[in-house]
Design goal:
- It is a single chain.
- This protein is globular.
- Helix content is 51%, strand content 18%.
- It has helices spanning 2-5, 24-31, 34-43, 47-67, 69-78, 95-119, 145-150, 153-182, 209-213, 232-241, 286-299, 333-354, 362-374, 378-405; strands at residues 8-12, 15-20, 124-132, 135-143, 185-187, 197-204, 220-224, 227-228, 246-253, 256-263, 277-283, 325-327.
- The chain contains 14 helices and 12 strands.
- The chain starts with a helix and ends with a helix.
- The model is unreliable at 1-5 (pLDDT under 50).
- Helix 6 packs antiparallel against helix 8, helix 6 packs across helix 12 (333-354) and helix 8 runs antiparallel to helix 13.
Amino acid sequence: MEQQKRVRAEVKLPLILIHTPFGLTFFDKVAKTSAARAYARLNTYIMPLITTLAIFLIIGSLLVLFSNSAAREGVRGAGPQANLLIPGLNPYLPITYGWVALVVTIIIHEAGHGIVARVHNIKVESTGIVLILGLPIGAFVNIERDELARASLKHKSAIMTAGPFNNMVLAGLSLLALYLVVSTLTPIPPAPGIPKFAVMVVSVNEGSLAQSIGITPGSTIVSVAGQQLQQLEDLSNILRAHLGSTIPITWQDHGKNITKEVTLPPSVEQGHAVLGVGVTPVTSDPGVVLDRYKAAFSQNPLAILLPPTMQQGSVPYSDLMAPKYVSTLGPAFPAIANILFWLWFINFNVGIFNALPIGPLDGGQLYGNIIESKARSKTIAKNANTILTVVMVIIVLASLVLPYVFF
């Protein structure tokens, strides 16, 4: 009953913060262990590594968007809401898997802050959840501000880093577990007569040629101008070779073959796609898909950040490909693989985002404290921190708006 009396709501429109005592005893118990103390010491020096990775990825995405018109077209087709880690708003983030992974991610993040704070004997006043329109969108650990302000720079670094580092650790463990699940798969040989290759439509741009002829997300384009597609690049190459002509396009929609005569525009502006679709390759050989996906774990793990909902034909546990495999885990393997993927995806993104040197984020608070400890005056420190935040915000915004302003 006493715990219930200590539960309170704080309104900061449009947000409602629910403060609770839940987890405080757990923080105290864990903080007394030698493992927690060792973990706290490790956290002291990790933030710059996560920040460097975050900036590297953002700059890399900017370079790709500058140089690759297909990438810009795909981002425009997905829409700006695809940048939000909110299930239900992000069209590629499944509601069930997304909410489970998001809640776990937030709890793990905030628990890191709380446990390391207690390791350094800094009071944690409450834990809680953040609501908007009645929906939980976040969680928090309310650390006593005055005690945190008096803590040494090393202790502050450990506390601020604990959240992002917890996310990165869970992301790595989830990725490893995902590889183990994928390793249990055995391909089912494809039935005869099925095209070896097709292009699956992931998104259709508003007002595009594809929309006007009835191509919908989930359709698979089999041939263009009578030519069977053999690789992803064939779609764009064949279309551009027939600009101004009327050609047949054949696609499959819910198992039905549809062929339509389509008149292509005489020209297409640089950076624009002819059909206006986001696509992913689909092969009828599940063994090829499985081998490529498993190879990505060792060759380029970041390639696995592309959601299965965006590349159905390239992910063995996607809705499209899962029926083409059997697993020693039984029919539950797609659900297990998907929850592990979204734990990897959301934890990784939350971890690197919070490590950015942007004012209110964990990284911003830590680098602000470092600047303050080195600056000659508080005014200089404040100005330097503001400049750092503004520069980083501009870089992040550039990566978000570039596809819409650079065609």
